[in-house]
Amino acid sequence: YSAKANSNLAFLEIVKSEGLEVDAMSPGEIYIEKLAGFEPKEIFYICNNVSKEEMQYAIDAGVVISVDSLQQLEQYGEINPGGEVAIRFNPGVGAGHHEKVVTAGKKTKFAVDPEYIPQVKEILAKYNLKLIGINQHIGSLFMDGTAFVQSIGKLFEIAKQFDDLKFIDMG
């Protein structure tokens, strides 16, 4: 469940009781999700252009963290060498009901382009980081599944370039 849609404590307690896990986009969401009873391993922090302090909060909270740029991966490595991390990749395919909600493809600032996989591997090695997962988010409120199916194929191709992934989050 994406808590940015509704982070009301009572509602999140219901989400938890239904057996779902949650994602978080901010330290505030991590905080309220933990109050709702979610264990750190059930919270997926998908950060975009966050400060070191925000990232450190998530590390200290013990949640799974996904970065979405080489700079964020470098920052994560600097403050948590040897840690486990996930990366949001741009599969090159986006979708959404309006151009402003398309978060993948050629005209977006979000996620790591697969062409930078060699640099990703360098940063992972530099800080002894373990890549445990990859994820994507292609956009919101799209009604045609064609782009989603295309993006999944591309995400699987990206996954083949990394050993020992624990998960692939399809967004």
Structural account:
The chain is α/β, with parallel strands linked by helices. It has six helices and six strands. The chain has helices at residues 9-17, 27-35, 52-61, 70-79, 117-126, 146-159; strands at residues 22-24, 43-46, 64-67, 84-88, 130-135, 167-169. The protein has a six-stranded parallel beta sheet. The termini are close together. The model has no long low-confidence stretch (mean pLDDT 87).
Question: In a nutshell, what does this entry contain?
Answer:
The chain is an alpha/beta fold.
Tell me the β content: 5-15%
Query: Structural class of the secondary structure composition?
Result: alpha/beta
Order of helices and strands: HEHEHEHEHEHE
Per DSSP, the total helix count is: 6
Distance between the termini: 11 Å
Rg for CA atoms: 16 Å
Assembly state: single chain
- How much is the average pLDDT? 87
Shape: globular
Task: Characterize the main sheet.
Answer: 6 strands, parallel
What proportion of the residues is helical, as a percent range?
25-40%
The spatial strand order of the largest sheet comes to: 1-2-3-4-5-6
- How many extended strands? 6
Low-confidence stretches: none
Give the arrangement of secondary structure elements.
Blueprint: H1 9-17, E1 22-24, H2 27-35, E2 43-46, H3 52-61, E3 64-67, H4 70-79, E4 84-88, H5 117-126, E5 130-135, H6 146-159, E6 167-169
Parallel strand pairs: 1-2, 2-3, 3-4, 4-5, 5-6
Keywords:
6 strands, 171 residues, 6 helices, alpha/beta, six-stranded parallel beta sheet, 15% strand
